[in-house]
Amino acid sequence: MRPPPVPLVPEFDLGGRNTLGLRSRARFGGVLNEEGQIVAAAQFAERAGLPFHLLGGGSNCVLADEIDAVVGIADLRGRRLERADGGVRITAGAGEPWDELVRWTVGLGIGGLENLAGIPGTAGAAPVQNIGAFGVELSDVVESVDVIDTANWSPRRLTAPDCGFGYRYSRLKKEPGRFLVTGITLHLPAEWSPVLSHDGLGCCAYPSCPAEIMATVLARRRARLPDWRTTGNAGSFFHNPVVSVAAASRIPEVSGRAVSGGVKLPAGKLLDLCGFRGKRRGGAAFCETNALILFNVGGATVADVDELAASAQKAVRLRFGVDLVQEPSRVGNRGLIGGLN
């Protein structure tokens, strides 16, 4: 095997590069801050017969202890603002921290992203998962996503319709490894109109500016979610399941919300009713105040996380007949990942 291209190194430590705080090590890895480095790293993996994973901030993944793969940390930086097409166009490199991007736009008095404040991860990972919070999803504001198409190793721009966005879903997620995200372009309206449909924003009846909503969003997140910088976690661990109206009627103790395709149920409530608030397995536990959050109470292993998550899924399935889908992606030795939080 030819030596890996700079800046890849063998036995790359990922312990400090995932918000769940799991010990992990990749066979090769490195921080990549140019498109050419991403291509070189992916092609090296291909020649070596190894999977290639491209990570952002490591906030939406569960890492295996030993990953027999090449792992690149996408660190392409840069952000730009321009007035265009009756609004504001924001471009950002894949490695830009998402929350910093939101705070930057709101600090300039530009609205549209304030409901998405406080979400960890990077701008490049945001479209893969189609991040969303407090009634807004990235798909509401994204104009295009810049990628490297590994089918021919060429740069390509995917429009919003090309991305096939859905609830915590996109074409980028459907075709893992096909597209390596290098940047995003967002289009925000010139005339700001606050989105207050989420119950958590009931106190913001007459906001005067985006900063007011952002402050409320950040306060709500602090009250509901442990800070990953002090308590390792990957945010919401399961998707809120969408079930048929008939299935929802058989679970009267859980209030759902009508959506396209059925009724969306709060996964946290299902877990709570199954007794998972505070439930622990080894170093992994569900939060005492929010059963949807699985966190690292100290020294958690990937086996602890997997076993605790599987037991929760089994309990919800047996009691309610509902399948919970894990939100953080499992990063191991197989498959190619185009971009993760």
Automatic annotation (TrEMBL):
<keyword id="KW-0133">Cell shape</keyword>
<keyword id="KW-0521">NADP</keyword>
<dbReference type="GO" id="GO:0051301">
    <property type="term" value="P:cell division"/>
</dbReference>
<keyword id="KW-0285">Flavoprotein</keyword>
<keyword id="KW-0963">Cytoplasm</keyword>
<dbReference type="InterPro" id="IPR016166">
    <property type="entry name" value="FAD-bd_PCMH"/>
</dbReference>
<feature type="domain" description="FAD-binding PCMH-type">
    <location>
        <begin position="20"/>
        <end position="191"/>
    </location>
</feature>
<keyword id="KW-0132">Cell division</keyword>
<dbReference type="GO" id="GO:0071949">
    <property type="term" value="F:FAD binding"/>
</dbReference>
<dbReference type="InterPro" id="IPR016169">
    <property type="entry name" value="FAD-bd_PCMH_sub2"/>
</dbReference>
<dbReference type="GO" id="GO:0071555">
    <property type="term" value="P:cell wall organization"/>
</dbReference>
<dbReference type="InterPro" id="IPR011601">
    <property type="entry name" value="MurB_C"/>
</dbReference>
<feature type="active site" description="Proton donor">
    <location>
        <position position="236"/>
    </location>
</feature>
<keyword id="KW-0573">Peptidoglycan synthesis</keyword>
<dbReference type="GO" id="GO:0008762">
    <property type="term" value="F:UDP-N-acetylmuramate dehydrogenase activity"/>
</dbReference>
<feature type="active site">
    <location>
        <position position="168"/>
    </location>
</feature>
<comment type="similarity">
    <text>Belongs to the MurB family.</text>
</comment>
<comment type="function">
    <text>Cell wall formation.</text>
</comment>
<dbReference type="InterPro" id="IPR006094">
    <property type="entry name" value="Oxid_FAD_bind_N"/>
</dbReference>
<dbReference type="Pfam" id="PF01565">
    <property type="entry name" value="FAD_binding_4"/>
</dbReference>
<keyword id="KW-0560">Oxidoreductase</keyword>
<feature type="active site">
    <location>
        <position position="327"/>
    </location>
</feature>
<dbReference type="Pfam" id="PF02873">
    <property type="entry name" value="MurB_C"/>
</dbReference>
<comment type="pathway">
    <text>Cell wall biogenesis; peptidoglycan biosynthesis.</text>
</comment>
<keyword id="KW-0961">Cell wall biogenesis/degradation</keyword>
<dbReference type="GO" id="GO:0009252">
    <property type="term" value="P:peptidoglycan biosynthetic process"/>
</dbReference>
<dbReference type="GO" id="GO:0008360">
    <property type="term" value="P:regulation of cell shape"/>
</dbReference>
<dbReference type="InterPro" id="IPR003170">
    <property type="entry name" value="MurB"/>
</dbReference>
<keyword id="KW-0274">FAD</keyword>
<dbReference type="InterPro" id="IPR036635">
    <property type="entry name" value="MurB_C_sf"/>
</dbReference>
<dbReference type="GO" id="GO:0005829">
    <property type="term" value="C:cytosol"/>
</dbReference>
<dbReference type="InterPro" id="IPR036318">
    <property type="entry name" value="FAD-bd_PCMH-like_sf"/>
</dbReference>
<protein>
    <recommendedName>
        <fullName>UDP-N-acetylenolpyruvoylglucosamine reductase</fullName>
        <ecNumber>1.3.1.98</ecNumber>
    </recommendedName>
</protein>
<keyword id="KW-0131">Cell cycle</keyword>
<dbReference type="InterPro" id="IPR016167">
    <property type="entry name" value="FAD-bd_PCMH_sub1"/>
</dbReference>
